[in-house]
Each structure stands twice: as structure tokens, then as C-alpha cells.
From TrEMBL:
It comes from the Eukaryota. InterPro entries: BURP (IPR044816), BURP_dom (IPR004873). Pfam families: BURP (PF03181). The lineage of its organism: Eukaryota, Viridiplantae, Streptophyta, Embryophyta, Tracheophyta. Residues 1-195 form the BURP domain. SMART domains: BURP (SM01045). It comes from Hibiscus sabdariffa. This is BURP domain-containing protein.
Length: 195
């Protein structure tokens, strides 16, 4: 498999502390204020990216899903603790070294690492914003991978066992609810799991 999210560039935007992030508007209803804050023109490419991220964060959860956008480091940690308790750990895909895009094969030793997890996707924004969600009947796996150049990785993958509430647009070439859907997570996706 060629996993673009494994070898691609990782966003370097950093979390802001809550005291800095909370006063910054983060809402499509306050989009004019957002543009003013970041000194952006309404039709610029950057403004369209910011608006899309806010729209994604404001989208309603589907049945069986809890979702939240973390806009500060504290809100990110608070989310994990409020949903899973204090005995948690944060996981991400691990890549032995930076590498060019290449084919990867699945190695030996795949293991399940969670049944109650919060998957947090890093969004494109002026600072770190994570769209976090927990979907019922989803398992998390750590999968060893070996690249064609010998590069090793421990990739995270999720398997959604119940896709009946999904839109047909979310699933490729299968009807919602007919089969489980498994996929790898990008390297800048973070996952909270219970210890």
C-alpha cells in the first residue's frame, strides 16, 4: 500500500494555550471577525481554508458519534479526561524516519489497542485545531509496516464495525451498514485511549 498520510508532510502549527485561544473568534457566525483578526481578505485561499475548518467543526454529529473541536492544548486534554477518565494515553502513528512516498507492507504483530477511543484529526488552521470524535463500535489497532526501503512504522488504523448511520458519500463502493470499514490514520492524527 502507498499510504500518503504516513509519509506526507506533517503540519507544524502548534497548540495555543487556552488564555490565548479562547478570545480568538472561532465560528462561521463571526467569520468577519476571524478575517479581521488574521488580516485576511474574504476571497483569499487562506480564508477559505479557515472557513472550511470551522464548518467541519460545526457540522452535526452522526448517530453514534460524539464530536468536538479542540482549539487549545487545555481543551484537547480536558476532552480526553472528560470522556475517558484520567488513566489515558495519547497515541499516534510512529515513523522510524522521514521518508519519501513508498510502498509499505504489513508486518507481523498487529494488535488491538483500544475499543473506546477518541480520534483527533489535525485540521488546517492558523494554529493547532483538532476535530476529535468517538464513534460507537470502532476498534483501534497498531499495525507494523515495513517500507520498500526498509523504513519501519507503527501505524494506527481504525475499524468501524457499524456504518449504518453513514452517508453513502463516506464509503467507497459499499452500501452503508453492509460491511465494516477499516482505514489507516494520518501521521498527524492523535488518538486518546484508556490505559
Amino acid at each position: 500500500m502507498n499510504l500518503k498520510g504516513l509519509t506526507g508532510k506533517v503540519s507544524r502549527t502548534a497548540f495555543l494555550p487556552r488564555l490565548v485561544a479562547d478570545p480568538i473568534p472561532f465560528s462561521t457566525q463571526k467569520f468577519a471577525q476571524v478575517l479581521h483578526y488574521f488580516s485576511l481578505q474574504p476571497e483569499s485561499a487562506a480564508s477559505k481554508i479557515l472557513k472550511q475548518t470551522m464548518e467541519d467543526c460545526e457540522a452535526p454529529a452522526m448517530e453514534g458519534e460524539a464530536r468536538y473541536c479542540a482549539t487549545s492544548l487545555e481543551s484537547f486534554v480536558d476532552l480526553g479526561v472528560s470522556m475517558l477518565g484520567q488513566n489515558i494515553q495519547l497515541l499516534s502513528t510512529e515513523l522510524e524516519r522521514e521518508t519519501q512516498s513508498q510502498e509499505f507492507s504489513i508486518g507481523e504483530g498487529m494488535k488491538m489497542v483500544g475499543k473506546s477511543e477518541i480520534v483527533c484529526h489535525k485540521m488546517s488552521y492558523a494554529y493547532a485545531v483538532f476535530l476529535c470524535h468517538s464513534i460507537d463500535k470502532t476498534d483501534l489497532y497498531k499495525v507494523p509496516l515495513v517500507g520498500e526501503t526498509g523504513t519501519r512504522a507503527a501505524a494506527l488504523a481504525v475499524c468501524h464495525k457499524d456504518t449504518s448511520a453513514w452517508s453513502p458519500k463516506q464509503i467507497l463502493k459499499v452500501e452503508p451498514g453492509t460491511v465494516p470499514v477499516c482505514h489507516f490514520l494520518a501521521r498527524d492524527t492523535l488518538v486518546w485511549v484508556s490505559n
